[in-house]
Structures
1.
Amino acid sequence: MSEVFKGSFTQQEPIPEDAIEAAVAVMRHGRLHRYNTTGDEVAEAALLEQEFAALVGTKYCLSVASGGYAIATALRAVGVGHGDRVLSNAFTLAPVPGAIAAVGAVPLLVEVTEKLVIDLDDLANKLGQAKVLLLSHMRGHICDMDALMALCDAAGVTVIEDCAHTMGAAWRGTPSGRHGAVGCYSCQTYKHVNAGEGGLLVTDDPEIAARAILLSGSYMMYERHLASPPQAAFEKIKYQTPNISGRMDNLRAALLRPQLRGLPDQVGRWNERYHALEFGVRNTPGLSVIERNQNERFVGSSFQFLLRGWTAAKVNDVLSRCKRRGVELKWFGAAEPSGFTSKYDSWRYIDITPLPKSDEILAGLVDMRVPLTFSVDECSLIARIIREEVSSVFQQN
């Protein structure tokens, strides 16, 4: 009888007990709003910002309502306005082009490579058409950041990093989010720390930080931030910067602070599971694993593989067979978006220029969540199921 996986691909681990206790303490005193403090009390949100800044080695940090809000705020804070073009990866999720559209700007998409990172050759050809690159480290895959920054710096292009899938990751020892002018992170349930929703923005630029804090809805209480620039940075802009409220509250911040302390251990656990999956499917006929760069320290919270050159019918057959055995796979080459998964030509609120290299990659790109509720042995079981079903369909070719 064929093996069947019986776990859930959407079940997260419980919130740690110390995080629950911290959240209950906030609920008991009732001061959930980040600026609702008494006496010498420091808000949980301000402490979270200070601790995350120390974790990634940045000067300034802002906690906000979501990762998408962090990105849109970063775009506004670096000066992107209505009608401006913003470069970004073709392979990403909808909140990235959505953030560009939210500020009235126009996404200019760049091809993706078989390593699932931005194509630096295509980027080089398009750098003259925009002043900002919103770089998505999609599904935790980090490109050659040294080469990318050299290109962008030479062209005078400001880089904003979308690190929704790379909190805890690094390129050549530098934390993800620390190469560009701004790094943006997500604290949504399926990311590396879980507040249900939430986001973090980091930068070393005092003007960008001050503008972001004012945009987030600080009113004139920006002095209550700990990981913020000097008060002088606010003086020139505090009357010209609109309030687009998107603050993180103290309840979410209280949930996140203990999780941040445990992040390095969680990264190690994710990568054990990732390597079990990678080992289990490697050398499967018709399947290509995504080879990781040795300079990349990644977080294996999701797993991808390619079925290069396969027809849509064959890919769908693999997905259906695996699903019958309890393994839920997502496909980035589907004609219509499904759940959280969509392809760049589904974003019909932007002008679409065909990207043939990306189309070829996405047509065979299969994706899977790796919750920490899976054991390493269960990941090996999942890999066996994928291997068997891919091999079976491949042999029919």
Note: The chain has a mean pLDDT of 97.
2.
Amino acid sequence: MKSNSQNYILVEDLLEYLKTKLKTGVRLVSGGRGLKNKIRTFALNRPGITLSGFFNDFSNERVQLFGRGEFNYLLDMKPARLKEILDKFFRYKVPCCIFTNDNNPGPEFLEYSNKKCIPVIITRLFTDETENILKDYLQERLAQKKQLHGVMVEVFGIGILILGKSGVGKSESALELVTRGHRLIADDTVIINKIGGSSLIAEGHELIKYYLEIRGIGIVDIKSLFGVGAVREKKTVDLVVILEDWKKHKNYERIGLTRETYNVFGMNVPLLVIPVKPGRNIPVIIETVAKNMRLEQMGEHTASILNTKLLNMMKENVNEK
């Protein structure tokens, strides 16, 4: 498992993205010498309470987003008070400040930003729109990443990461699943992104996305062969399936009352180990696993229901005696 996370992006990268994304209505108005400032968190800060003079919990490490409320608050300040607040505000190392609604903060603010090398960016968008765009971009860029050797598919809406040693049949199983109407996300190199601290999102490497390696045939392009409906760019990792050669003396799960987990970035994902041997139809088994998981998500746990029935039957037999 290879880790490939980047723990910061530069303000100039964010500015370039906004210009590309929005085409017009984004401009840098001051603090250009701070474009190499580093952004290390996807969280944003609305500095309303800070502008009132409360700096105890100032999240200065975040991008500072000034909406209409913060802008008008600055406008209403008397010159002496404005200078006092700005003097305190710019003592902190802030990555950058972004003003929405095409609001320009005024010469005093821009003078401080130039002096302290803190870029000020203005966008024409409303605050909510700007906030959503910033969060999506920063979460994706600052996500923790891992590369795994495996296959990622979507089966009946369930994102399944298939792992196992080389040659065990991961890609062949994925090909069969695609022919049965399911979707491929990635083969060989699966990139796992931890988004927002609570989601694991899998995607393929840009260079080999939607290609599948089948021994004896070579590389096939799933998107070209089966159409755009047979592929998907990203999917949450809902289940990990490990394929392994059947081990005669190993006790495999037969009831399903217990569930192992697979740990990624400290998050536990449900895990199933499926033994492979001639005569076992692995794609059908994976389909069944996906359907069963959907049932569990709807509150129907087959093994638990059967276990309850057996216990009740045993209790009735005891009472009859």
Note: Residues 260 and 271 are 5 Å apart (CA to CA).
3.
Amino acid sequence: MTHKHEEPFAVPITPDWEAFRDCIMRKGTPDRVHHIELYLDGEVQDAICRRYHLLDGLDSEDPAFPLERMIRAQRFLGYDYVRQGVDALEMPLHRAITEDTAEFQRSGGRAYVDEVKGPITTWEEFEQYPWPNIDEVTTHALEWYEHNLPDDMCVVGSGGFAHFAEYLTWLMGYETLCYALYDQRDLVAAIADRLMDIYVPMLERILQFDRVKIVWGSDDMGFKTGPMIGPDDLREFVLPGHKKMAEMSHQAGCPYILHACGNLFTIYEDLIEDVGIDGKHSFEDTIEDVRELKPTYGQRIALLGGIDVDFLCRTSESAIRQRVRDTLDICMPGGGYCLGTGNSVANYIPLNHYLAMVDEGRKYRVRGA
């Protein structure tokens, strides 16, 4: 499938989803480093597949081609899982499109959600909005993985659900939401309730599949110095949704991990003690260095990723390798750490920089292992 002289990694890895889950649940120092990413941009996946001939022998016309492609890419990179949720769920938003200037340019441009005004700013717009019919949602990809995913890999239930804070800001527009929290709180509550009505049955569908062993909610809630809306508003309109997602996951025997960007120190205790998250993902050096959290929150939840995206973009491969080794020295003991970027593998991260991070993790020798 690949040409050995082009293999970028010094150490082979065989997936082990059970050890991956045990690491997240902090069941002792793992035998090797486990890797995690919320996602790799499609352009990055394409570049890796082309460079290392990962698609040799696959039929691009086969309906299962994207799923076969995902398995090959994930195994090649050393991940223990694939991410999958229900099939596409449409919730129209107001977007602006600009040219993409990244190294692996996105042909359709880069999209940004309108921060001022979304599709729902009044009760009339709420009633007219084309809310998705959950009864029409399909699970073709999950069904395929249930029967075709290699036994040493699992499905991380993720994608398209648990965006409670994000869809409040996207559907209303961030500026409109801020005003509405003062003068239209009933409309904000109605949107939050409708999101719960959508996401609960979505997660029920996902958890019906035995290959789903971990649930990963994704919901950016903050920026550099604080949350996007006040902590009390998050507790009223956002955190109850994640608490329900965590309860459902735990009842199914799955850890619930959360991707959430921004400075969330004002609600960390809520996330751990009330919501019940098992792990936190998304760390930015200007907010919180994951290495500094290991002695504190890292004793209570898993810390996931944390190799800062800006650092990966701007520094050298040798500096990346040193940062990875230092992070692993601090964060690996006792488990509860998986190596990855601080957010995701964006198409503007130099590909060799990302591969250097992965390779250094694969080479790392766990003390005592």
Note: The chain is about 40% helix and 10% strand.
4.
Amino acid sequence: MSLIESPTAVSPLHRHISLRAEGKTFPSVIEMVKTLRPEEPLHCVRPGVISSAASAFCTAFNGDVLYAVKCNPEPAVLRAVWDGGVRHFDCASISEVQLVRRLFPGAEIHFMHPVKARSAIREAWMHHNVRDFVLDSESELTKILQELGKPEAAKLGTKPGLFIRLALPETGAAINLSKKFGAEPEAAIALLRAARPLAAKLGLAFHVGSQCLDPLAWRDAMQLAGEVIRASGVQIDVLDIGGGFPVAYPDMNPPPLGDFMSEIDAAYDALQMPGLKLWAEPGRALVGGGASVVVQVQMRRDNMLYINDGVYGALADAGALRFRFPSRLLRASASQGAPDAAFGFFGPSCDSLDVMNGPFLLPDDVAEGDWIEIGQLGAYGTCLRTAFNGFDRAALVEVSDRAMLETPGYEPSES
């Protein structure tokens, strides 16, 4: 079984409907629904939106842009990111490494998970030309060096790039990523000193947290990183400022992309380390607006709608994290112009936890058989799907629509 057919977390959706082979995509989600009348959840990828966002970020950021593959590993999404100018990929598993290398033989792949299996380190190094590894502990440094020091690996005759992950104080992001990963400053200083003579290039990395709305979070993190670098007394080649760059949701309105880049540029100047190269690892910011899912209403009970996707499918973040997503009705019959009302969703599984309270604003006369498009699901929508209760029959199409919500600074240019 090939990698692309294998039922892994980085495989495409099980049934991939696409007109790309004929040199075209659906002109809109509405036209797609009229044509296919889908009875299973259908993911709508917007390659143009993704490519435009990737291009905007690459233009604005003064360094190398590494797409965080975990955010959405769909091949159609990865190709759109590549078309937007991204040539570096932040991978968190050997499966992601394999997928990126298969799609893009010339890509630069960086293994940026702080805790890796020994077999993954060996395979990435020996078979996929991965040279950069992140770590946040002495034990992980020892593990990497032991695996790369084995005769088969050592034959390559080069040193690895080693990146020390720095823990940060709370930033107010939607998800705090320093609770699980990152060395405290004193430990990071010791790791930088230990890694310097062993590294072809040495870096310090951090992550302010997912969906961070505050541009000052990067300024403060870069200031802390500068203090750690100076205290270490060793030369650092790269400062990796991670991801966390936000996109718009109905109740989250991030500042324009330029505000983030202004703070990053000012913080870099304040470091006074002119030889230091910057990396960033955006995920959500590049692909969040680039996909939606079309679901069908199976039953209505007051203002709760039973739909054919849920928290075990594309809508995990609408459940546990209570994210609200833009939604619109794609009616099976002519609209009567009913006023909007607030709805919640029940997913298709038998689990009573499969609930998304929203609220999602839809016409008050929504009924069984209607379709609903739920947007801003390019980040973590597809890749968090499970086969729980057998509700894994989703498909994917490509459409030419703009994003359902546009984030300032990423809007596609008018043709």
Note: The chain has two domains: 15-45+288-398, 47-287.
